[in-house]
Specification:
The chain is mostly beta strands. Helix content is 0%, strand content 44%.
Length: 174
């Protein structure tokens, strides 16, 4: 579960959209999603108080892959191919790795406006709808560790402050 820290705000869960607090996409990766962390963007008005520019999660363990369940608010206002967030990996030996997260390739708009496009590289793993008809979607970004025998000290997810608002619903190691 992503938990709040001094610099982050944990938002209410996604249950009103039909997503339970424990979520398992089609390939068996479990996510504990009792909250959501909303990140910063270049939008003049952000609908959520206290968005964070980055999330740092201490890991101190080995893993083959990191799965991130995420969405993009106002993703339709950003061009496909724009890096809207970045994953930074710090290993315990001091080395680093990481990966960009792109609009259109890895994540699509949380609230599809006139488009049912799906990510071209990552997977769209959840679709929901409120009683009022608002549709919602979440993507799963997977980072494959090129050094699975090395211990990872921490994972950092950083917003690139684009027009789209990144939000992180869950992170799972596998």
């Amino acid at each position: 579960m992503i938990t709040p820290s001094k610099s982050s705000m944990l938002l209410p869960n996604l249950a009103p959209f039909g997503l339970a607090s424990t979520f398992q996409p089609h390939e068996g990766v479990n996510f504990d999603i009792r909250g959501v962390v909303n990140m910063t963007s270049s939008r003049n008005s952000n609908p959520v108080e206290n968005p964070v520019e980055k999330i740092e999660i201490p890991l101190n363990r080995k893993t083959d892959a990191i799965h991130v369940l995420l969405g993009a608010g106002w993703g339709h206002e950003e061009k496909d191919g724009v890096e809207f967030a970045h994953l930074n990996i710090s290993y315990t030996d001091g080395s680093t790795d990481g990966a960009p997260i792109f609009i259109g390739e890895d994540v699509v708009d949380w609230n599809p406006v006139g488009s049912a496009a799906e990510p071209t590289r990552s997977k769209l793993v959840w679709k929901g709808q409120k009683k009022q008809g608002y549709r919602r979607r979440l993507s799963e970004f997977v980072w494959i560790n090129p050094n699975p025998d090395k211990e990872i000290k921490s994972l950092e997810i950083v917003s690139r402050n684009t027009k789209a608002v990144p939000f992180i619903s869950g992170v799972t190691l596998k």
